[in-house]
Amino acid sequence: MSIKIFASVILGALAGFFIVPVEIAGSLGMIADIGLMVLLFFVGIDIGKQKDILDTIKNMGMRILLVPLFVIIGSVVGGMLAGIVLSIPINEAGALGSGLGWYTLSATILSREGFITLSALAFLSNVFREVIGLVIIPFIAKKLGYLEAVAVGGATSMDTSLPVIASSTDGETAIIAFVSGVICTSSVPIILPIILKIGA
Q: Do 36 and 156 form a contact (C-beta atoms < 8 A)?
């Protein structure tokens, strides 16, 4: 699966560079949204076919919230540690990590706060997180575990990464991924500005 995803990204990049006319570029977002909706529809069908999943999730109770909690902590702390290595102020590095893969919002918030260079870094780092995640999620699910695969997706576990997670794990994990993605997505506009102001 990882090879197929990687090949698809490379072929898409080559097609965009050499084949696809510039006039179509404005419609690519809509086309991508339609494709994503179709993928998520089939993920939903797969989840719905497994009748005992909701009971399993109900039995997990509040433990299901631990996944997004640790995803958020790991992303922010990881960003801060990277900031120490790269000599980036710890609050700015933590803000980069707190984008959780949502490249459009994190870049917008940082730009609005006057951090133009940091905004560009947030955009790139979160795009890379999503693309790399799509490639390595199947490998991580197979070699490390299903919840570890969910963690890679961050905020994208509820949308773009969900089909890959669902095909690489099981229905129960797909629901956990969706819940985790929703919570991570909701947390970005709250925690990013807070972390940015720490030590500022």
A: no
Q: Give every CB contact of residue 115 below 8 A, 6+ residues apart in sequence.
A: 92, 95, 196
CA 45 to each of CA 115, 177, 179: distance values in angstroms, whole numbers, following the listed order: 43, 16, 17
CB within 8 Å of 151: residues ≥ 6 apart: 67, 70, 71, 74, 180
Nearest alpha-carbon partner for 161 in 29, 71, 151, 143: 151
Which pair of tokens denotes residue 182? Answer: 């929703």
What does pTM read for this prediction? Answer: 0.75
CA–CA separation, 118 vs 123, rounded Å? 9
Helix (H) or strand (E) holding 195: helix 171-197
Q: For the segment 42-73, what is each residue's pLDDT rounded down to a tens digit?
A: 766 766 666 666 676 677 777 788 999 999 99
